[in-house]
Specification:
heterodimer; A: 155 residues; mainly alpha; 2 domains; 8 helices; 66% helix; 0% strand; elongated; B: 220 residues; alpha+beta; Helix Hairpins; Immunoglobulin-like; 5-stranded mixed sheet
């Protein structure tokens, strides 16, 4: 699980002896990149990253006491963007009907866990995308069909 | 929210709807000018003693009355196409909300990477002296953050419905088996109302939609 030390390290490594009380676009982008790379090193799942961002956003007033104003604004922006995750625009489905998008992500998830096992980390993208796109009723129906071997597509 | 006797569009609260309101006003100016001109000509032809009754053809007149409407149409076409393509924006959404229409209520589902929460939204049947809006308020409002690109995925569990919020300029049919998407973004906090827009049975008029936008800080 990510710890707050990451944030300290990222900020200290990037922000040099500049005037940090004002928001600086370039310094901010550096901090964002540094935080991204540190989180990537931790190898967190999508859900864990969102929770980390959300928890830090919730205690933003505490971070305000630690860092100067410019850095705080930068961090607030970073956490606000990452607290809620949604799958990116999929160019395979540019039209208004996204039913196929939902279905394809679900099928990809089932195939991924069949091939790689339930605990394989990278299958999580498909699972999160299907959970975001598909209504719960559809997901329950698909799960029942898989259990009763009546799913329309070979997994 | 529309009021009794309202003739104009509702105030635009999303970026697209504001642009649509400006476009509507711009088009209305052009159309009123044309209508005034035609009405004047009409009255002139009927009442004026100075009308020339013996003109049979005039090449200049025919050229002018072809070129001028063409120019007017060009002025109308450019903003129209610009707005049309802007509405088809494919920006990456920040938040996805699923809307499922039932007879006769809406069900909203937020699914995020770390929570999955769904609830039903029924109309509130209140007596006339209550502070809530008659046939517009619901028991559970859909709460959303401002300044976020929100993608609504609308479908239905039984019959055709249509999910509409006119203040944001959004409307899409809720069709069983189909998952239509709608994108919106609003910088303004507030409570916005809409109603089901496709006949769906006896309580079609009694399944309203209420969205409550709050700042992102309070939302999370």
């Amino acid at each position: 699980m990510a710890s707050p030390d990451l944030i300290f390290k990222a900020v200290n490594e990037t922000a040099n002896k500049q005037d940090l009380s004002r928001y600086d676009q370039n310094v901010c982008l550096d901090i964002h990149r540094k935080l991204d790379s540190k989180l990537k090193e931790q190898d967190l799942s999508i859900a864990e990253k969102s929770v980390f961002a959300r928890n830090n956003f919730a205690v933003m007033n505490k971070w305000e006491q630690v860092f100067p104003a410019g850095i705080t604004e930068c961090l607030r922006e970073y956490f606000r963007e990452r607290a809620i995750w949604a799958p990116k625009f999929d160019p395979r489905f540019p039209n208004q009907n996204q039913a196929k998008n939902c279905f394809v992500n679900y099928v990809d998830y089932q195939r991924c866990i069949k091939l790689k096992g339930q605990d394989y980390k990278d299958c999580e993208y498909f699972k999160q995308a299907a959970a975001s796109l598909c209504p719960n009723q559809w997901l329950e129906k698909f799960d029942e069909e898989i259990e009763s071997n009546a799913f329309p597509v070979d997994i | 929210l529309s009021v009794w006797g309202q003739l104009n569009l509702q105030e635009g609260m999303s970026t697209i709807m504001e642009l649509m309101n400006y476009f509507h006003d711009y088009m209305m100016i052009i159309l009123v000018l044309i209508m005034t001109f035609v009405t004047y000509l009409f009255i002139f032809v009927i009442t004026s003693p100075r009308l020339d009754k013996y003109t049979v053809d005039s090449r200049i007149l025919e050229t002018v009355w072809t070129i001028v409407p063409m120019v007017i149409l060009l002025f109308m076409a450019f903003p129209s196409l610009y707005l049309l393509y802007l509405m088809e924006d494919v920006s990456n959404p920040n938040l996805m909300v699923k809307v499922v229409g039932h007879q006769w209520y809406w069900e909203y589902q937020y699914s995020n990477s770390w929570f999955n929460y769904g609830f039903d939204s029924y109309m509130v049947y209140e007596k006339s002296d209550s502070p809530l809006f008659h046939s517009l308020d619901v028991d559970n409002r859909l709460v959303l953050p401002t300044n976020a690109n929100i993608l609504f995925l609308v479908t239905s569990a039984d019959v055709l419905h249509s999910w509409a919020v006119p203040t944001l300029g959004i409307k899409t049919d809720a069709i069983p088996g189909r998952l239509n998407y709608l994108s919106t973004m609003t910088p303004y906090s507030g409570v916005y109302y809409g109603q089901c827009s496709e006949i769906c049975g006896s309580n079609h008029s009694f399944m309203p939609i209420v969205l409550e936008f709050i700042p992102m800080a309070n939302y999370l």
